[in-house]
Design brief:
By secondary structure, the protein is α/β, with parallel strands linked by helices. The protein has a single domain, classed as 3-Layer(aba) Sandwich (Rossmann fold), CATH 3.40.50. The chain is built from 8 helices and 10 strands. The strands form 2 sheets. Strands 1-10-9-6-2-3-5 form a 7-stranded parallel beta sheet, with helices on both faces. A 3-stranded antiparallel beta sheet has the order 4-8-7, with helices on one face. The structure holds 2-phosphoglycolic acid (PGA).
């Protein structure tokens, strides 16, 4: 695992945007795996600025998002569909038809997950998957458990994730209790993985990522089996 240790959130966001810019410049028709949450917002801001300055062109890029709450309307301002449009897609030129986000509105979530996985397979490998990390070490919505799901699936959120995410909702009861998420193998199939983490509250999860063990009780530790992971984090996440 390669480590890029940054002094500030801004620096971290810049380093992450650099990775994406370099990939899109060298492979304009690449596939990006994208993440939501507070962590990548600065990276998306950087990318929007670079796009406005004509430094990056997303016209050939395809995107697949990691996850989405279930059930949730795409119009709900807490949906990841809404998040991605508000924080990136409304401001850059990724073609609409190239954008893929699991659909939290469907009545049959199992079929949606199967179709999402099929679409990913048909598209070919994700060139670069961006990840945040939960305080509990989750990746996407692969929550700590005695076993983990390999492929895209519907899952229950843990109490700690519901609580962590309640900061975005008016009331904790409003946080959806389930989600659609790529599985660990879906994620590990990506050519390259970029994991972003900032803040003291991520230190425990980052420490587990950097020690020698692999455990499904900290799903991020499975990333140790991947040959090309770049961890970009700040001092608080790294040193505590
Ligand atoms: P955060 O979430 O970026 O809002 O901290 C990360 C995650 O839960 O994966």
């Amino acid at each position: 695992m390669k480590l890029i240790l940054c002094k500030t959130y801004e620096e971290m966001s810049m380093a992450a945007a650099d990775e994406i810019s370099a990939l899109v410049a060298s492979n304009p028709c690449c596939t990006l795996g994208l993440a939501t949450g507070s962590t990548p917002i600065g990276m998306y801001r950087q990318l929007i600025n670079r796009y406005k300055k004509g430094e990056i062109d997303f016209s050939g890029v395809t995107t697949f998002n990691l996850d989405e709450y279930y059930p949730i309307s795409r119009e709900n301002d807490q949906s990841y569909y809404h998040f991605m449009h508000q924080n990136l897609f409304d401001y850059v030129n990724v073609p609409k038809e190239n954008i893929h986000i699991p659909n939290g509105e469907v009545s049959d979530p199992e079929t949606e997950c199967q179709e999402y996985e099929n679409l990913l397979t048909a598209n070919g490998q994700i060139d670069l998957q961006v990840l945040g990390i939960g305080q509990n070490g989750h990746i996407g919505f692969n929550e700590p458990d005695s076993s983990l799901w390999a492929l895209t699936h519907i899952t229950d959120l843990t109490e700690s994730t519901i609580q962590a995410n309640s900061r975005f909702f008016e009331k904790e009861e409003d946080v959806p209790k389930r989600a659609l998420t790529m599985g660990m193998v879906t994620i590990l199939k990506s050519k390259k993985i970029l994991l972003l983490a900032n803040g003291k509250n991520k230190h425990e999860a980052i420490s587990a990522l950097l020690d020698d063990r692999i455990t499904t009780s900290v799903p991020a530790t499975l990333l140790k089996t991947h040959p090309d992971v770049v961890l970009i984090c700040d001092g608080e996440a790294y040193y505590g």
